[in-house]
Amino acid sequence: MISMRIIDSHVHFPTPDFFGKPEGRVHPWLAQERTRWRKAWQFDGAEPLQSKDELVERWYREAIKYDISVVFVTSGGNDAMSEIVKAHPDRFYGYAHHDPSLKEAPYLLEKAIKEQGLKGYKILGPAVNTPLDCKDLYPVWEVAQGENIPVLIHFGIMGSAGGIANHVNINPLIIHDVAKNFPDLKIIVPHFGCGYIFETLNLCWACPNVYIDTSGSNQWMRWMPYEVNLEILFRKYRETIGPGRILFGTDSSYFPRGYAKSYFDEQFKAMINVGYSDDEIDKVVFGNIDDLLKGR
């Protein structure tokens, strides 16, 4: 592996709730799509989950092996996340990830940052039934802006084949007015916008406090109505917002896959082919998220 500073800004600590409930009969097309995805990336299926402590140590060994730091964006709750990151603060960062529509959400976020050592906030847009631009959620954004933490919000298709494709919070532009009304709130849109490229580019152009991350296999590129690949995405986002608001991530989670280095390799190759300089690559894979985690 090329020697460079790397913080993977988007990793899920494996938990039962992340993988969902056991499925009954699966439609043959869905099973075929999931099998195709694993084969394409040469990934084995997920192992039975170990204990949390065993997984913490296994992920720590992954971080040492690949000489990276990781940002866990979900872990099954804020209490669990606090324990995970405190086990290895030299390599682990963690985000709060409770529902922003809860009455106690602002309090939980403030507690997570001030008392539990967490560094950001993760929200799954299509899992929140309240529109994200609703004024009822403004107290949450006030806390996040006041504590100077990044807020990572998943938009677009959610889940593997058969997942959610229509929801009030699926389009990134739902957060436009929030970004305008809270100009110091750092908002991260993952997976290059997850199919909503035009909307995400417009959002980033209009709101300089919006960032994107590159995480995942980005298989949504396959069903776009026009040709899209990683080189196009890295070029178009750099042309629109520059290299200072692009964050590297993999969306890694389960074992035996562990750290999805193949995602890094594909993204690194795309940046090289597009013409990113060494300094620009350093910003994407390290500097930009390092600044956000440190409140800069």
From TrEMBL:
- Does this entry carry the keyword Nuclease? no
Matches recorded under CDD domains: metallo-dependent_hydrolases (cd01292)
Concerning Pfam families, the annotation shows: Amidohydro_2
What keywords sit in the KW lines? Answer: Hydrolase, Lyase
GO-annotated biological processes: secondary metabolic process
State the superkingdom. Answer: Bacteria
tRNA processing recorded as keyword: no
What positions does the domain Amidohydrolase-related occupy? 7-289
Tell me a Gene Ontology molecular-function term this record carries: hydrolase activity
Q: Report the InterPro entries cross-referenced here.
A: ACMSD, Amidohydro-rel, Metal_Hydrolase
Q: Which Gene3D superfamilies match?
A: Metal-dependent hydrolases
Instruction: Provide GO CC annotations from the record.
Output: cytoplasm
Query: Which PANTHER family does the entry link to?
Result: 2-AMINO-3-CARBOXYLMUCONATE-6-SEMIALDEHYDE DECARBOXYLASE, ISO-OROTATE DECARBOXYLASE (EUROFUNG)
Identify this protein by name: Amidohydrolase 2
